[in-house]
Design a protein that fits this description.
about 425 residues; alpha/beta; Alkaline Phosphatase, subunit A; 10 helices; globular
């Protein structure tokens, strides 16, 4: 038995033993997990990233109203009813409220990172703590690695926002990395041909490249193979077919207005990229100018937090209804996530600090059996009362929705690495 096979078998046996222990504990304290998860049939993911830390009790898990002036803990806004009985959301989510039967808010996400934004961002993109020996891949890179692009001539993984190592492929290598862009009006920087390069000139260049490749000896060097793959993909993506995705002007003015401003246009572009065959798209909500701090609402940053919530509401409601009208919602899992939440207490400036013990992430579409909300926190949203969902559980749910087995092994060289850190999908979403 070689070392790779031995390590693989040992890891499977170890994971199975731990899962049996988890299953026994789950029988006493149900947490929504299952030993042999049912796999879904979603084909794409649109992941909306709310950098800074969205406060659940001011959005998707409202509690009794507080008073920042008197330092009375509680929600900042009133709540409203939704399409799901007994599930309420913030008053500024009026567009999403009628659509909550297509949505599940996981209200009991938790981890142990509190004051380190970078570490929490890494945790919510890779599903694991930072390691000194292993650079773990992001969820987008894992899905790109497992499923590839859904259409010819499309990249598997696109980030609409600024590049960051936490979104990267880690030990999987560059071929499972992302293509990024910051401007919705044009394709990724470096992929558009200069005006002086005609189709004929481009064809001559590609013919010359083919000749150079044929004259070189074959190689097994992973770095060179990744580089060759990158060149081939860039040639495909620089063509007119993929770049047409960025022509948002092809959409009706009414639809574009329905999506709203710049963030909404990013979400509209994400839908167009799904249609083009991109498997995983992250859309970053980086509009800090609305309140000066984005979702990290310390001190005065909370005063215009409602503008961020309203912008999210407008874009998310438009995206869900647009996907549904095109019969893409069941095929597309929409994820709204953030690095941690906010506590119910107000800080000295009237804003909020950080909280990792209990916060919310949102799933929509993807062919799941939605229930409006899953899990319960206490009267102030500080502690989990029922059905905790760990970060590995969240990742396992995402992978399972796309038909990827959460117990599968990836390999860092010859070291087997479970695709999740023993996460279990939320069972009721697959019932």
């Amino acid at each position: 038995m070689d070392r790779r096979h031995f390590l693989s078998q040992a890891t499977v046996l170890s994971a199975a033993s731990l899962m049996r222990g988890e299953a026994g504990r789950a029988a006493e304290e149900p947490a929504g997990g299952m030993a042999e998860p049912r796999l879904g049939k979603a084909e794409h993911v649109i992941s909306i990233w709310l950098g800074g830390g969205m406060g659940a009790l001011d959005t998707f898990d409202p509690k009794r109203k507080g008073d920042p002036a008197k330092k009375v803990a509680g929600s900042y806004y009133d709540s409203i009813a939704t399409a799901v009985p007994d599930v309420r959301v913030c008053e500024h989510l009026s567009g999403v409220a009628p659509l909550m039967d297509r949505v599940t808010v996981l209200r009991t996400i938790h981890h142990d990172v509190i004051d380190e934004h970078a570490a929490a961002v890494n945790r919510m993109h890779t599903g694991r703590p930072v390691s000194g020996t292993v650079v773990y891949p992001s969820v987008g890179s894992v899905i790109a690695h497992e499923l590839g692009a859904a259409g010819a001539g499309a990249p598997p993984y696109v980030v609409i926002g600024y590049p960051n190592v936490t979104r990267g492929p880690g030990f999987l290598g560059a071929r499972d990395g992302y293509l990024y862009l910051t401007d919705t009006s044009q394709g990724p920087a470096g992929l558009s041909r200069p005006d002086g390069v005609s189709p004929a000139r481009q064809a001559r260049r590609e013919a010359f490249l083919t000749g150079l490749r044929q004259s070189q000896p074959e190689t097994t060097d992973a770095r060179l193979l990744d580089y060759e793959d990158a060149i081939s993909q860039s040639l495909r993506l620089s063509g007119p077919e993929f770049n047409r995705s960025f022509k948002l002007g092809e959409e009706s003015a009414d639809l574009r207005n329905h999506y709203g401003g710049e963030f909404g246009q990013r979400c509209l572009l994400a839908r167009r990229l799904v249609e083009r065959g991109v498997r995983f798209i992250e859309v970053a909500h980086n509009l800090n100018f609305l309140n000066g701090s984005g979702w990290d609402v310390h001190n005065e940053g909370i005063l215009k937090q409602h503008a961020l919530i309203q912008e999210l509401d407008t874009a998310l409601a438009a995206l869900l209804t647009d996907l549904e009208s095109r019969r893409l919602l069941d095929k597309t899992l929409v994820v709204v996530s953030t690095e941690f939440g906010r506590p119910p207490e107000f800080d000295s400036g009237g804003g909020r600090g950080h909280q990792g013990t209990a916060f919310s992430c949102v799933l929509a579409g993807g062919g799941l059996k939605h229930c409006g909300a899953h899990g319960e926190t206490d009267e102030m949203g500080k502690k989990i009362v029922s059905h905790p969902v760990s970060v590995p559980d969240l990742f396992a749910t995402i992978y399972a929705a796309l038909g990827v087995a959460p117990a599968k092994l990836l390999y860092d060289g010859d070291r087997p690495v479970p695709i999740t850190d023993l996460g279990q999908p939320v069972a009721r979403l697959f019932a």
